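mind reviewing this fold:
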Amino acid sequence: KAPSYEQLKQVLAETGRQLSVAPLAAPQRIAALQAEIASLEKQLAEREAAGPLSGETLLQSAETVGGVTVVVTEVPGVEGNLMRQLIDQVRGKTDSSAVLLASRQGDDKVTLVAGISKELQARKLSAGDWIRPVAAAVGGGGGGRPDMAQAGGKEPARLPEALQIARETIRKMLGA
């Protein structure tokens, strides 16, 4: 037999309470959670498809510019915290390095993280100065300390162009 109006009302009220929303907002909240799950599953699949990721694997794609190890690359499905850890791994394996990592979050967001070694900071270079024009290229902004900076953007389709700007900008900063 079908549940009564009172039973449905009670279920909706309990669902709303558990989701911390008004009972009538519960269906929208559930739909939003389902969309978030789908987005996270897609991000996880991108991360797995990209293969193993570590400071070592990033160094395989590095180029040397004026004696400095430079890594500029997209890391699919990686969030900002892990990008900072990867940058620290690269800095730990090199004396002089500049690393800028980018990741798309869905169809409307880009996260960028840049880090430079102490040796480059001593030469008055700044990760914040490096990341600004790159973030502008993806329709965003950000900044940070001389050693590490984070930025975001709203135009993931422009990421290849932004990474090229990152490469050109660090070459100019290094005087190469």
